[in-house]
Design a protein that fits this description.
The complex is a heterodimer of chains A (575) and B (248). Chain A is an alpha/beta fold. Chain A has 20 helices and 23 strands. Chain A has a 21-stranded mixed β-sheet, with helices on one face. Chain A has a two-stranded parallel ribbon with strand order 5-7. The chains are: A alpha/beta (575), B alpha+beta (248).
């Protein structure tokens, strides 16, 4: 390859698109490093504090697409205070100053302000795509800037963000000349929507393939929208309540029949189940169905709908479907690859919840299943062993038994053997979440068998430091380890400091690690940021005489090339 | 300084008070804790597995391991900040994104309220059921106060009545801890200020509902409030009067 001119090598590199592969080729030799960095257009930064904007721009000056993740995963469950960090503003400022030709920005768990969005919209002429997942800090005013200023906007995709809805007219801020939209997802907005502006926008967007509406868009508006966008591939229905004999419902039926490209359906945020039959004609084309927010769709209406969806690859559903419903899924959806079952009611079981039987049925009926997230009331080792036998292809396996520490409900044993069977059989397992009663034994299995495991979530599990040590020593590919309420302490934390250099991050909350343990770790590993998050006033760590032995409530550590961050709030102590 | 994501020790204190001294009918504590096998002592979080050791197993090895586990876990003691003791919930469990949790609670409250709007007794029962439902999940809403640039977040499901909510908000915004600038609290440190519905203290508590309208807090039954509230705002009385006129 050294005999080829740079342009040829660069052309070859154009075919290498995955981040992992690109990182690998940049390590081969200096010349490849140089060619690679000038030709890299898409950069993924899994932890925004692992580097900084200046370094990013120095290395990749031809950047077009940036993906940034901010807060640790457990922030999704309120375990991280809102002011912790993850601000996108400095990144946008630096990108704007450098005049890089940014076209795409994807953010997850970051704090985004209206100011940031305004700056973004004004700084990059060719900006095309904004995807915000689980972010917060902005309002519809920020969206108005994006709509108004991004002339070539293709994607505006807002997934499960907390957005202050000022009920402004952000939708009318899209100029009449804007005809390039491909994706428009505002399902998470809580306020009213200007239906006229929306309909006009959809009508002048011939490339629109993905449209996800919020609660405020009623059924008659949906009918009109669908009839002017029959090319739709991905639809999120807002409000779906109407009299099935009404004229608008008939119009909807007609419009739906024309949407022969529709492959993905979601939403039904407020739904009258008897209207679902309007969608039956296109169900046989669906590959993705997300009814996890459709609390009102269950029972026979739900089953009837699913029975039409023979090509389904991805299904997100509420546990009100029940084990019987999952059996229907198992017998109908033979192409199923990903299943997520969310709880619909957190108070107590009830007869609508799912159990281990539903999981076993799915594993038996869906041979292509590789990703599962399953919230349930109970589980047994026997069921997990069966699931492992039926589905050795799991890449992601997340099981959440709602009651912490719950054992096998038949034998009262811990669930070590069940999870052990999963990790032993599923050689490609990359992500695992544990729950139920678990001893150190499960971690022995994980360390022994889970060779490809990159992310592990542990809650209320284990007996001693040995558990955590098994994982740290055994899982060579571990990237993100997050632990809460488990009895792991300093011994495990400090056993192999160099391990953390190979990982993106470690989170430990309500465990047994002490302040002095964390201090020792920080001393041994200056290339780590060791953050202690301490919210309570009466636990002032500096003032307390016995500070060394004091237990740390929340520990978050991550490798970084840029040292201590400057934007940490007062309750975050970086050692 | 209290983080915003957990209703901090202030609300924990007010909930402690609620459990000891019931403030109203609607504030009856819910006894769901035993189902989980949680043994909760006030002010502490911790899982002791006394319930399992009692229930279950015939084999001696598992019961001894469960007992030794109980002692290990009982050894993990944390402050009331983790909220488990006072409201029967564990922070961040089950692991469901806040956005999804909020939409679940809204759906449940909405169903319960709309089932029967006539009977008073039904409403009471529903409210307690709503409370029971809400006990297991968080519902965080933003709270802003006129004159204070930084907003906070509060978990509405940590409260069962308006009085406890009001107490918490007063703690959060009107009683300064070390670290807050005194600039905002001049003149407020001497007399405890209350946020009263009649606005006689100069401040009034309002909320934005699902339709985007701003309403005075306290007018509707708690369960209905929970089902429609989107965010809270502590307004100066003069502003509130103006807004009220706009709504009317």
């Amino acid at each position: 390859m050294n005999y080829f001119p740079d342009e040829v090598v660069e052309h070859v590199f154009d075919f290498v698109t995955s981040h992992k592969d690109r990182n690998a080729i940049s390590l081969v030799c200096k010349s490849w490093y140089k060619i690679e960095r000038y030709s890299r257009q898409k950069v993924f930064i899994g932890n925004c504090y692992a580097t900084n904007p200046e370094r990013l721009l120095r290395r990749f000056p031809c950047l077009k697409s940036l993906t940034l993740k901010g807060k640790p995963h457990f922030a999704d469950f309120n375990l991280v205070p809102h002011e912790w960090g993850g601000f996108v503003q400095p990144w946008i400022e630096a990108l704007a100053r450098s005049r890089v030709g940014l076209e795409e920005l994807r953010l997850k768990r970051m704090v985004v302000t209206d100011e940031s969005l305004e700056l973004l919209s004004r700084s990059f002429v060719n900006f095309k795509s904004l995807v915000l997942v689980s972010c917060e800090g902005f309002t519809t005013d920020g969206l108005a800037s994006i709509a108004a200023n991004c002339r070539h906007l293709r994607d505006l995709d807002l997934q499960e963000n907390e957005i202050d809805d000022h009920r402004g007219q952000w939708l009318s801020c899209f100029p009449d000349t804007c005809t390039t939209l491909v994706t428009l997802n505002f399902a998470c907005l809580e306020g009213e929507t200007n239906l006229v502006a929306l309909e006009r926008l959809v009508a002048r967007s011939p490339n629109l393939k993905s449209l996800k509406l919020n609660r405020a868009v009623p059924l008659d508006a949906l009918a009109r929208l669908m009839s002017c966008a029959p090319q739709m591939v991905d639809l999120g229905v807002g409000s779906y309540e109407n009299d099935p004999d009404s004229e608008s419902y008939l119009k909807l039926q007609a419009a739906i029949k024309k949407c022969t490209s529709l492959r993905s359906l979601s939403g039904f945020l407020e739904a009258a189940p008897h209207c679902l039959s309007a969608f039956h004609p296109i169900c046989h084309n669906l590959t993705s169905l997300n009814l996890s927010y459709a609390a009102e769709i269950h029972g026979s209406h739900l089953i009837k709908l699913i029975q039409h969806c023979k090509k389904l690859q991805r299904l997100w559903i509420l546990d009100s479907i029940g084990d019987k419903g999952l059996e229907v899924v198992a017998s109908t959806c033979k192409e199923l690859q990903e299943l997520r079952v969310f709880p619909s009611d957190l108070v107590g079981g009830g007869n609508t919840a799912v159990t281990e039987e539903g999981l076993v049925a799915i594993s038996a009926g869906c041979p292509k299943l590789h990703s599962i997230l399953y919230f349930c009331q109970q589980m047994t080792n026997a069921a997990l062993v069966t699931v492992a036998k039926n589905c050795p292809n799991f890449i992601r396996f997340r099981l959440c038994i709602l009651e912490p520490n719950k054992p096998d409900h038949v034998t009262s044993q811990p669930l070590d053997e069940g999870f052990g069977a999963i990790v032993k059989a599923c050689k490609n397992l990359r992500r695992l979440s544990l729950s139920g009663l678990l001893t150190d034994q499960v971690f022995l299995y994980i360390g022994m068998y889970a060779n490809q495991l990159e992310m592990l979530s542990i809650a209320f599990a284990g007996d001693t430091d040995k558990g955590m040590l098994y994982v740290l020593n055994g899982c060579k590919k571990m990237k993100k380890l997050e632990i809460r309420d488990s009895p792991f302490g300093d011994t495990a934390l400090l056993a192999d400091v160099s391990k953390y250099e190979t990982m993106r991050s470690l989170w430990m909350s309500s465990c047994e690690v002490t302040l002095s343990g964390c201090k020792r770790l920080a001393e041994k590993a200056p290339w780590l940021n060791v953050e202690i998050i301490n919210e309570t006033d009466n636990n002032r760590m500096e003032e307390n005489g016995h500070e060394g032995r004091q237990k740390v409530d929340k520990l978050y550590l991550y490798r970084t090339v840029v040292g201590t961050r400057m934007d940490a709030p007062p309750f975050v102590w970086i050692l | 300084m209290e983080g915003g994501s957990v209703s901090g020790s202030a609300s924990a204190l007010s909930n402690d008070e609620n459990l000891v001294v019931s403030c109203e009918d609607s504030c009856s504590p819910v006894g769901n804790e035993l189902e989980l096998g949680l043994t909760l002592s006030l002010g502490r979080k911790g899982y002791t597995r006394v319930a399992y050791a009692d229930d279950s197993s015939s084999s001696s090895s598992s019961s001894s391991s469960s007992l030794s586990r109980a002692s290990v876990i009982a050894g993990i003691k944390r402050t009331a900040d983790s909220m488990a003791a006072t409201s029967g919930q564990v922070v961040g469990w089950p692991p469901i994104r806040t956005y999804r949790m909020n939409s679940m609670v809204v759906n449940q409250a909405k169903t319960l309220v709309s089932e029967d709007q006539n009977s008073e007794i039904r409403q009471e029962v529903n409210k307690n059921r709503t409370d029971a439902t809400n006990m297991r999940s968080s519902m965080f809403v933003k709270v802003t106060m006129d004159g204070i640039p930084i907003g906070r977040k509060i978990d509405l499901n940590a409260h069962k009545c308006y009085e406890s909510l009001s107490n918490t908000l007063e703690e959060m915004f009107l009683k300064p801890k070390t670290g807050l600038s005194t600039r905002e609290t001049d003149g407020r440190m001497e007399t405890p200020v209350k946020i009263l519905p009649d606005g006689s203290s100069g401040l009034v508590l309002t909320y934005e509902d699902k339709e985007g309208d701003w309403m005075l807090v306290g007018d509707v039954p708690w369960g209905m409030f929970i089902g429609s509230v989107r965010r809270l705002r502590i307004m100066k009385t003069s502003e509130a009067t103006g807004k009220a006129q706009m709504i009317l």
